[in-house]
Amino acid sequence: MESKLNLNQGLIDSARSAAKNIAENVQQFIDKNTTVTVERTVARLMGVDGVDEIDKPLPNVLVDNIKEGGGLSRGVAFWIGNAMVNTGLTPQEIAEKVSAGEIDITKLPIADEKKIMDAVYETAKMMVERIKNNRAKREDYLNTIGEGQKPYLYVIVATGNIYEDVLQAQAAARQGADVIAVIRTTAQSLLDYVPYGPTTEGFGGTFATQENFRIMRRALDEVGEEIGRYIRLCNYCSGLCMPEIAAMGAMERLDVMLNDALYGILFRDINMQRTLVDQYFSRIINGFAGIIINTGEDNYLTTADAVEEAHTVLASQLINEQFALKAGIPEEQMGLGHAFEMNPTLENGFLYELAQAQMAREIFPKAPLKYMPPTKFMTGNIFRGHLQDALFNFISIWTHQGIQLLGMPTEAIHTPHLQDRMLSIENAQYIFNNARNIGDEVEFKKDGMIQKRAQEVLAKAESLLKDIETEGIFDTIEKGKFGGVKRSFTGGKGLAGVVEKDEKYFNPFIDLMLGGVK
Amino acid sequence: MEGIQKVDLTNVKPYGDTLNDGMVQMSFTLPVPYGDEASEAAKQLVSKMGFDEPAVVYSKDLGVGYTYFVMYGKCTHTVDYTTIEVPKVDIEFMDRHQVEDYIKENIKRDVVIVGACTGTDAHTVGIDAIMNMKGFDGNYGLERYNGIEAINLGSQVPNEELIAKAIEFKADAILVSQVVTQKDVHIANLTQLVEMMEAEGLRDKMILVCGGPRISHELAQELGYDAGFGSGSFANHVATFVVKQIVERNLI
Lengths: 518, 252
Description:
The complex is a heterodimer of chains A (518) and B (252). With 518 residues, chain A is of the alpha/beta class. Helix content of chain A is 52%, strand content 7%. With 252 residues, chain B is of the alpha/beta class. Chain B has 2 domains: 59 residues, Defensin A-like; 153 residues, 3-Layer(aba) Sandwich (Rossmann fold), CATH 3.40.50.280. Helices cover 31% and strands 21% of the residues of chain B. Chain B has 7 helices and 8 strands; from the N terminus they run βαββαβαβαβαβαβα. Chain B: Keywords: Isomerase. Chain B: It is an enzyme of class 5 (isomerase). Chain B: InterPro entries: Cobalamin-bd, Cobalamin-bd_sf, KamE_N, KamE_N_sf.
């Protein structure tokens, strides 16, 4: 693609190389550690599911048993494999016996290493095969019934009741939506377990459970077949259970996952060591399952100013890109995020937004960029809000964004009503259709406001990344350079769940999934 | 002016393009399939709401057997504007500099304000707008004020933790932001905080303020707060209220 912004390729390369070094440094830390949720994920991927009599998930029961026995640094896979060799039971049966108090898993005699490995890999490969089949099924759908044009229209449902969500999701799909995101109930990101079964209660959203994933997947396949368009399902792979949600999504053929390397640290006050280890495994799974990840740079602009802090968005996109590459996610699955969040009273604000969106497009040419709507300056004036969303849609079609999270005129009032979604879809369809090729026709004035703005943001991002490269990401976050939020290395939630691996630790799924289908 | 009717404030009704035409625009969805029967149902419903000449100007099939309407109707009801009384934070608001001077002259020490989005609420946009340095829409936040120590605890803070922090920092005032109000979760949460503060014997020693898009001063007072601030409130409004209360209640 020819640059319309006259961006300096040398600066882009320098920024990217700094981001690469930043990720490289953190990766050394990540590789030395595991966490309780990473291990629960391994248990889930080996087939452990269900809850005990007090609704505690069996993956938690199993991992807690291993942690109490002092065995977590060896990894859950080893202990499950050892128990399989000892008892001849399946991982699920073993978890049930641990729950019943009949097995204390770390106290079993240690079996022959080769036998353990064979048992683990045989089980793990079955799950890998299942996920591969899900991926093939998605591709089959895309080849047969097809999909909507980009930018995909992305809407949320958030009733708290999965069955009500289904009704709203099917309505939205019939109206033209391409991606349905089921917003999670507000507190779920801070739960150190994943709830179980279908749920009908939630605040501001619906619990992410494997059964809810299954129910919505079935409903979207049904409506997709009917209208002749594959409908993608999105959920939230963030919080204290990032990799577990990724595993559940891979098993139930989700297509899109919110999955940011830094978001949990900055905006949910989750400990940085915990999140960085968790995001790695979650992204390996998402990458392997063909899931498009969405990063959360839009959030910076809800706490910081979109004009002054635009470069932090680009810097974070570049860091997220490098972390994603480390986890084997191809560019085509990187829905790097940004947002239309400038104050609508700002003179020429539209031009700055256009510059930022076009810049992201040029720096990440293959990524299905995720563009987020105005929220911070939505006021309850639904009529002006509808116009703000229209300008947002206009920039999206102009700059070829990948995934358009549709703004709602009733943003800042309530979670969307049924008709709000229809009005927003209509808004986007009108503008996307009416201005489809504007980006191919219009160029920007040399050294004009738009070019200069993009060049300035790039230069500031490059300089920030160089600083971070010197200081390291941990110090940078401690100093509050992202989103104006300060977090300490040992503060926040979930640090107790981080465990250093011992020399014999293994996780078969990193081996089987990293780098995609082999 | 000759020929133009004067507004009768004891019998007020909506204005479209002529006084007392009562014109109201509305939009809603009915869970019935698109068609003539749907439009008739919408008209009958709007009649029952007290509108004359209900008119469906637009309707659309929402795709699941439901129909969306844009409608007009002439309101038949009136209200007496002259008898209306709304409880408000009834003080003259000072700007940032006036608040700073007021603290210097009357309190003569730093005022400590602790704020948070409590319970499950993860939406910090409100508390950030009031507390963070940058503020909102050109109005600086409390962190910017000389003489105010503003501590923003962020989102999803349990009430227990908020109280513990307020004690730790010797707070003069607590600000609670509640944005998510689905199923009235904010009411339970706000009530719990008041009860816990009363149980700890702190309620009279601290100024307790809540805010959010669905919060009114009236609701706040009903729940046992000193004040409530809704949409369109800025840091100087909250600051004025807090510093004046400190002086009035002799919490200096």
